[in-house]
Amino acid sequence: MDIDSIRDIFQSFTDQFLTEYFQKRPMYVRGPADRFHEYLPWEGLNEILTNNALPVGNVTLVKEGKQLDLRPYFRFESNRQGPASRHMWRVSEVTRELREGATLIVDKIDDYYGPVRTLTRRFENALNTPISVNAYAGWRTMRGFDVHQDDHDTIILQVHGRKVWKLYHRADMLPLPRTGEQLGDFPSEPTWEGCLEEGDVLYLPRGSWHVATPCDVPTLHLTLALATFTAFELTSYVLDGLKSDPFLRFDVPRPHLGTICDEYVAAVAKRVNTALTAPGLLERFWRRQSALTNPRTEFSLPWGGMREVLPAGDFTIETTVRGSSPMIEEEQSGEISLSAGGKAYTFPTAAGPILRVVFAERTRAKSDLVAACRSLCTESQLEGLLTDLAESGLIVCKLLRDEYEPAQETAAQFASV
Which helix (H) or strand (E) holds 339? Predict the structure, then answer.
């Protein structure tokens, strides 16, 4: 199954999920048992662990809410050039803990396994936000974590096996992102309890108390963590934009100055309010977040190492920009500035409209892009621009491949929690 759009999982996505559930309340969706198998088969997890490519900090063993010390479970292997260079798992010790009920967690697995990365990109494209993915594997009936909250929205994809979930109320005071806060009254009675089977999806908004327990069968699920931005990030962005205001660079007056303090606060409030109510603020804010988010690390070999960076004939173009489309603005000089991954790239003025077409969709065939840009440039000019983007790591080129038939979902498959 190809999840080229989130609609393949959440049918009627725009009308139902975004308006009724997203950032409001949980949602449970049943699905075909095999629809996530190809994205992380057990063989894939074995390959990731066997290759020892993961940093030690990206693998965790937890049991009944406690994180195990990993030092007894790996050894360092030296190479001929010098001291210890990589860790090697002590497989028998790790699997013994798994047999005794530990949960194995692989953080940011989308950075290390191609099919999961492909799945993640499609969710990012649909939701216009950066996403990171953790994998959770369990065997017995011991839960990995106690009842807790997450400081971000999560989408759980049950890949193999099954797991029982208990959901509780959502806190009124939401935890701030990247803090790990646990806020509000600790829950007593669950508001929903259910078993996620293979192919099922569970969405939890930020701050929802929950706990998950394996069912004494091998179970593997992916948790997609959606990047969260609050009014604190928005106001910080607004204040950064006011740094060129000479008035705001004056010292804050001391309290004994009386009316001068009142006038100063009123002047600051006026400037901030003007910036907050400026048309298009949120659009600019999201473009800025995208511009600051590091792109996904992807190679286009063999073509990336050749003078002709682009493949011959038709091919697929994928942008590496995560979240919203990159910032594409015209500078005072007339040149076009494209900001992505914390860097700014400069292009001729004529490239502006073409760049907007290129980044309007995350994945498309080169032939489709040629047709879309026919009124803007020649095919040769487009190829020159694509070459610049590929050399900058802003796009990757892949061979065209047959697509799988998308899963057929119906609105009847929605089950509100």
Answer: strand 336-340
* Amino acid identity for residue 238 in this structure: V
Could you give phi then psi for residue 335, rounded to 5 degrees? Answer: -75, 160
Strands (E), 171-238: 192-196, 201-204, 208-214, 219-226
Q: Extract the tokens encoding 316.
A: 């697929």
**Between 43 and 53, residue with greater pLDDT:** 43
Cα gap 255→238, rounded to integer Å: 26
Place of tokens 């840009």: 373
pTM score, whole prediction = 0.84
Give the pLDDT confidence of 185-243 residue by residue, as tens digits: 777 899 999 999 999 999 999 999 999 999 999 999 999 999 999 999 999 999 999 99
d(Cα 119, Cα 404) in Å, to the nearest integer?
Answer: 13
* Spatial CA neighbour of 200 closest among 408, 41, 36, 38: 36
Q: From the CB of residue 402, how many other CB atoms can be counted at a distance below 10 Å? A: 5
Query: Cis peptide before 302, with omega less than 30 degrees from 0?
Result: yes
Expressed in percent and rounded to 5, the helix, strand and coil fractions of the chain are 35, 25, 40
In the predicted model, what is the mean pLDDT of residues 141-149? 91
> Do residues 54 and 94 lie in contact, with contact meaning Cβ atoms separated by under 8 Å?
no
Q: Determine how many CB atoms are found less than 10 A away from the CB of residue 317.
A: 22
Half-sphere exposure of 252 (CA within 13 A, CB side): 4
